């Protein structure tokens, strides 16, 4: 077209598209759920704006917030239309090609290593999945603030934008036309599209319609029975048709006596609703199946791996602040969960007010350390017709946050309680508490710990109110854990009589720590020592001072007491001169003190950190700045 303006895709986007076009990835189905998810986002946006300005929805069909899918078998086109917010010319240029999202290169990398496209939506580049099935795509869009435009591209490094003077006016919203590739013909089948919507998009909160053919009985004048209509209808109709035709013929023969009409089957098309728009969180938890929760999680988290979430919690809060919420623990942590920890405050909860989606970037809903959770909150207490900024300040949010944290920690605690293999349950005889049906829960807490343990530790550091609750969730190895994870409760239960402190040691690995001279005496005396080998543990232990009635004691630090030993005093006396000599021999800015030690057995001497000083491990961490 002459009037079209040409643009080049941003380099990373272009690369992504190249890979998609040439991908041998077999699951090309994903394009549909990505388009539906975008349509749903666009509808959420216009519905949100309409809260404060009703006129924004326009009138007539434009007010219907829905998604429509249609196929044109002859032209091999699949069309998706939504009545969402639409895109201005500038939006089209930016969103579909020139501004690379931060996830673009991360996704390209991931795709090259794993070949898995399933998570494309999580990386914010879902739209481009259309090129798995189409070689030419048109996006027609109309936003209230601009004219109607067409974006088009054959994935050849460039796209074009033109003012739309030839298509039907959309009113508002977006229409996406996929010109299917040769091998993607299956997506012209209604049954295929229906299956896909059922499978991936069941929990979209807007109606999804398919322009679907349907067989209907119609009365036609008997003498016009050779019309071509009939032939067309028998072409698309299913087997069993022949019998019907026979009956028609008999009717025909009697035509004289009967009115001059007859019944034929005709295929006509109509909009068929494909999803149940009743929001899952409004339903009674008892009536929602595990499978439904899993599917809901997949669609909410855009995580379409085969894995189930590790846990979920669906509840209603009542009282001053009323809300419903569903929280999920994902099966896996995203690879950048801790990379961006200190820079981003983005929670993964979606906030709805009275069924209307408000935002998924509300940082007031959960503390940072719980950002790995996915889910949603729908509140009836929050006001609807105020700006996001004002909502952010609303006093109810504090209450919501508090309750969400409690529920989240309960949910995590339950993963452990229901896991027959978790440290806290191991002592209990399997038959006592767990049946065969609990097999599925075996090892779930270790899995949780492996993925999100660090978040629990960060929680202990950051959340003084819930520190004790979080400490219960800690798992670690120790001199007595036999290569397995153990807990503080277990440690306490194994404490020697008279033992006051919980002993721990920090370092880079268990192997290194096991050889440490600091452990000699403790081991010999049969005390248990916890190994903390994660860099974050050093920080953790600056905040975790005690648990139940015991204090934590770093065995490489000053202050280690292993119960009274009558020899201590004598030793101190008889080696008085030697310790004096040592102290003067070592420059005083290198050591604070020289003492007789009760922690050694074979090793003659050891360097110990003063009570408030950095441990050797901490020194090492600070030097390498690994956190
Ligand atoms: P994401 O949905 O994660 O933002 P996508 O690649 O799926 O990433 O979409 C890119 C952007 O294109 C969206 O953020 C949105 O701004 C815009 N977009 C895509 N589809 C639509 C649509 N149907 N209506 C309005 N905007 C859309
Ligand atoms: Mg998307």
UniProtKB/TrEMBL annotation:
Q: Which UniProt keywords apply?
A: ATP-binding, Calcium, Chaperone, Endoplasmic reticulum, Glycoprotein, Nucleotide-binding, Signal
Tell me the ranges covered by the Histidine kinase/HSP90-like ATPase domain, including all copies. 27-184
Keyword set includes Kinase: no
Stretches the record annotates as Disordered: 220-263, 420-439
> Per the record, where are the segments of Basic and acidic residues compositional bias?
420-434
Q: GO CC: one term? A: endoplasmic reticulum lumen
Q: Which domain of life is it from?
A: Eukaryota
**Which residues fall in a compositionally biased region of kind Acidic residues?**
220-234, 241-254
Any one Gene Ontology MF annotation carried by this entry is: ATP binding
Which residues are noted in the entry as ATP-binding?
34, 38, 82, 87, 95, 101-103, 122-127, 174, 388
Q: Where in the cell is it found?
A: Endoplasmic reticulum lumen
Of which family is this protein a member?
Belongs to the heat shock protein 90 family.
Q: Which protein, by its recorded name, is this?
A: Endoplasmin homolog
The organism named in the record is Eucalyptus globulus
Which residues of the parent protein does this chain contain? 74 to 700 of 822
